[in-house]
Structure formats: C-alpha cells, structure tokens
Amino acid sequence: MRLKGGSSLWIGGGLVFIAIAAAVFAPVLALTDPVMGANLMNAEIPPGWEFPFGTDAQGRDIYSRILYGARVSLTVGIVSQLCNSLIGVSLGLTAGYWGGWWDDVVSGLTNLMLAIPSLVFALAIMAILGPGLVSLVVALGLTSWSYSCRIARAQVLSLKGQGYVQAARILGYSDLRIMFTQLLPNILGPLIVIATLGMGGAILSEAALSFLGLGIRPPFPSWGSMLSEARDQITTAPWLSVFPGLAIFFTVLGLNLLGDGLRDILDPQSTSRRA
Amino acid sequence: MADTLLTLDDVAVHFTVGSTLKGGIKTLRAVDGITLDVRPGECLGLVGESGCGKSTLALAIMGLLAPTRGRVVLDGSDLGQRSRLETARLVQMVFQDPYASLNPRQTVRRTLADPLRLQGVGRAEVDERVMDMLAKVGLRPEHADRYPHEFSGGQRQRIGIARALILKPKLVICDEPVSALDVSIRAQIINLLLELKDEMGLSYIMISHDLGVVEHVSDRVAVMYLGRIVEQGGWQEIFEDPRHPYTRALIAAIPDPFHRAAITAKAKATGEIPSALNLPSGCPFHPRCPLKAERCVAERPMLEAVSPAHYAACHFRDRLG
Question: What is the ipTM of this complex?
C-alpha cells in the first residue's frame, strides 16, 4: 500500500506530533494526578463533562492516565526500535556486503530470532532484568531486529552488483565508506518504513508485556497496563479499554503514515519532492 | 619491460559452480590463460561475444576479482602489493550501464569530489578539479549540484567518464561504454573518449562485442573466445588480414552497406557460443567453424605468430587470408 506522499506525511506527522505533545505536556494537560488522583467516590464514571474519558475502578481520570501513558509507550516504542534498527542494519549491511562466514553467522542468528517469537525472548530478558521502563526498552530493543536485518541484507545483495558500488571500490573507498555512503542511503527507504512499523509493534509489545505484569508496574499508567486492567470491566465499563485502545491505534497509524510519507521525500526520484 | 603499462602473464579466473550434492562441482573457466600487454598511450580493443570472459578479465585487472593463476602487473607492481587508494590512481573504469553506475543519492559534485578527498586533496583544489573535469567532459558548471536522474543517458555516461578520469589514472578500462546508449550519441561519447585520451595521455582497454566501435578507436586488437585470446595484432592485421575464422566472422557481422569488405557472409559463424562449463574438445571454436577439419576436434591450436606482431590460434592460420 502506498498512499500519496504529501497527505500521508502530514496526517501521520500530525498524529505522531499529538502523541509526542501529549507525552511532553502531560503535567500541564492532565486534569488530575494519574496515580494519586484515585478517589473511590468517582469510580467507573462514564465519559462526561467532568471526566472526558471516564474514570476507572479506583476513580482515576482515564484522560490524565492516557497522557502519562503516552510517555511510557513512546519512549519504549522509539528507543527500542532505534536499538533494533541499529543492530539489524549493522548486521544486515555487513553480512550482505562481506558475505562469506559472517553472512552465514548473521543469517543463522536472524533465522533463530525469527523462529522464536520475539515476545518470548523479551519475556526471558524481562524475567532476568525484572519489570521497569529500562528493562522494557532493553528487552524489546534486543529482540526484534531480525526484520531490519533481513531487509538490509536483501537490499545490499541486490545493490552491491550495481556499477556505482563497484566504481566506489575502484575509486578507493574503504568497505565501511562504501556501506555508509553508497549502500545505506539507497536502502534507507524500506528501513524507515520497517522502523515505523516496528515502533508500532514495540508499543504493542509493551502493552502485551504490561498485560502479563512484566512491563510498567501499576499503579503507574502505560497504555498496555491500562488495557489489561480494563479486561475485567470490558462489558460494564467499555471506556476503560476503548480510550487506551484508541490511543494505541492512532499512534501506530500515525507512525505508519509518517513512515510512508518519509519514504516518499527521501526518494530523490519521487515527484512529490519537487512539487 | 619498461615500455608496458599493463602486463598480463597467463592470467586465469576460474569459478566453481554447483555443489557436491547436485551432480558434482564444476569449474567454470571464465578466463583461461591470457597473456597481454598494454603500452602507454595505446588503446587496446578487446572483442568477443557475450560470455567470453571480457568483463571478468576487466574485473581481474581492476583487482575486484583475484586471478586463480597468473600475474597482473600494472605500472611495475603486482595488484596485491598496492593499497586500494594507490590502485585507484592507476586504473579506473567506465561502466556499460550509465543508469546503474551512478549513485542515485549523490550529486555529481559529490561523486567527483569524494575520490579526490580520499586521496587527501585540499578543498580548494578539489573544487577546481571537479569544475575542470566537468568542462572537459562537456558538462556545464550548474550540472554539478544535480542528481543523476536529472540527466539523459549520454550525459550520465559523460559523468561516468568524468568520475573515471578525476584521479588522473594511467589506464582506463572502458567496458562497453556505448552499447547502452542511443546510436545517435554513441559517436559523441567515443570521440570524447578519444579526445580525453590524447589530452590526458591515457591508455585504454576498450571492451566491446561490437567490432565497429573497436575498429574506430583501437591501435591494437585482441579477440577473445571462451576465455582465451584467439587472435591478437595491430589494427591493420586484424581488420585487413584476419587469420582466425572467428575474427572473420565478427568482421563479417559489422554492418557494411557498401560491401567494401572482402569478407562475405560465407565467413559467418553458425550456432551459439558453447558453455564455458563444458568446453568442446580440441579447438573450442570447431563446432561453429566453417573450416573445421579432423585435426581441429583432436588438437587445440596455440596462439602462434603469423607475423611478428600478429598472433592467431588456428591450425589454418597460414592458409587463410
């Protein structure tokens, strides 16, 4: 699926901007404290004027908790995907360019990571490190680099026979310089798309780990832990799951649209750049 | 030999293909024992059909492929003895496909300036040399900050030539420099290459399957067939007195509307080039040769002298012509 460059960039960028703004300005925008704002007198009030997104079983304002939850979700999503991209691209680029035994090692490792669900790996790491934001980022940042790696390697394999890569060697470029100046800029498009998808995936994985009690510890909010807490009341108080769900949905959608739009401007042959 | 720039001594490049599980490993003799030299200021034409090993030989000369056997001596030193940066100052290459041979994400300026910077040339001199080179290949200064996709095929090939010459190499390998271009601009590019050769004192190896191009530019010609040289000599010997039936077939294939050439359609080779994996016995050209005799099936002809500077690998080299 390829949306028109301009609109997807702006819509995606807008959604991601809103999510980031929510995270940064959470203390200003929040109506109550996300943790200490509990008041059993206000338990499970449906969305209305006083509490726009309603309240949970402890009477905490869902709107305020979503704002603070954005901090966790975005930090985990962005930082862990940056780690994944860095690992995946370095391994894929070198494996594709050098080939030989290094390629065998990297390909084997990639297949291993693909064969075992990354969430299981992340669970194992979380079990060792214990719950918390840093261990979440580490666990998710070390476990889903295999897609970036595969894409980078496949792209490099198809590009390294191109005349300009051979020309660079003949012109005296070192291998690392060839990788950074000739190969990387030409494989960046698909990698950015993969990275934005991966950020969405990491946000979802954070939700899954929080759901299993390994993510952010309650009472501090993250979108995932809010969803898991809302599980029991999904029929009686649906707003508890709807609003964190929508927050995840729009953030992931925004990241995907942004990736799509970025791919278009990063490609100098696309017409939208000149338009 | 001080008067040669490049010396190839029995150079072979073999590839192994297949696996032990699927019918065994075979050796593909892409280049099989080539001895050649190129003198300063000379243009050597290297001719042959697709798949005869011309490009493999070019890669071996550039040092991008290690020869299985033999030596490649360029300007007095073996390839292995030089660093990549040193080799870059000696030998460069113009590629066939002007679309795949330029990095789509680099401006022309960057493409030309980076190799100079790697050699440690100062910023001011880099700028000056880039502009100078653009002018030499017939591009305007404002072209420097454009991306490759903004140029036509002929202009791209000019950029490719500028990139090959920016380090002032001694030898330039032109691998089918015009075969991907429109016929209408081929002559421009060929003439540009010839002008720059004289201006900068370059030597060329002009690789082509098109004898017409080679005829126009070469001082000497080597004809390759299945990884070996079958005939080698000066321009005049090759084009006016070819002794190998394969050379005659190639010359017969040059379009000649006025029928000036003495060689007619009778000389044409029949059939397809055999696989380099499964070479015919004896002379590798015998399945296609109009002069085939029993001896050709049994015995492989060596490259032997017809006259002092003219060699042919055919049992009947003295009867032809």
Answer: 0.84
Q: Say if residue A193's pLDDT is above 90.
A: no
The mean pLDDT value of chain A amounts to 83
Query: What is the per-residue pLDDT across B105-161, written as a single tens digit (0 to 9) for each?
Result: 899 999 999 999 999 999 999 999 999 999 999 999 999 999 999 999 999 999 999
Q: Which residues of B touch A174 (CB under 8 A)?
A: 84
Measure in Å the smallest separation between the Cα of A254 and chain B Cα atoms: 27
- Is B120 near chain A, with CB under 8 Å? no
Q: How far is B273 from chain A (nearest CA, A)?
A: 25
Q: Which residue of B has its CA nearest to A267?
A: B105
Closest Cα of chain A to B8: distance in Å?
19
Q: A172–B97: do the CB atoms touch at under 8 Å?
A: no
- Tell me which residues of chain A have a C-beta less than 8 Å from any C-beta of chain B: 162-164, 166-174, 177, 181-182, 185-186, 268-269
Tens digit of each residue's pLDDT (9 = 90 or more) over A86-108: 999 999 999 999 988 999 999 99
Domains along chain A? Answer: 5-273 (1.10.3720.10)
What string of H, E and C letters represents the secondary structure of chain B?
CCCCCEEEEEEEEEEEECECCCECCEEEEEEEEEEEEECCCCEEEEECCCCCCHHHHHHHHHCCCCCCEEEEEECCEEHHHCCHHHHHHHEEEECCCCCCCCCCCCCHHHHHHHHHHHCCCCHHHHHHHHHHHHHHCCCCHHHHHCCHHHCCHHHHHHHHHHHHHCCCCCEEEEECCCCCCCHHHHHHHHHHHHHHHHHHCCEEEEEECCHHHHHHHCCEEEEEECCEEEEEEEHHHHHHCCCCHHHHHHHHCCCCCCCCCCCCHHHCCCCCCCCCCCCCCCCCCHHHCCCCCHHHHHCCCCCEEEECCEEECCCCCCCCC
CB contact under 8 A, B95 and A172: no
Asked whether residue A272 carries a pLDDT value surpassing 50, the answer given is no
- Chain A CB contacts of B161 below 8 Å: none
> What is the band of B260 on the pLDDT scale with cuts at 50, 70, 90?
low
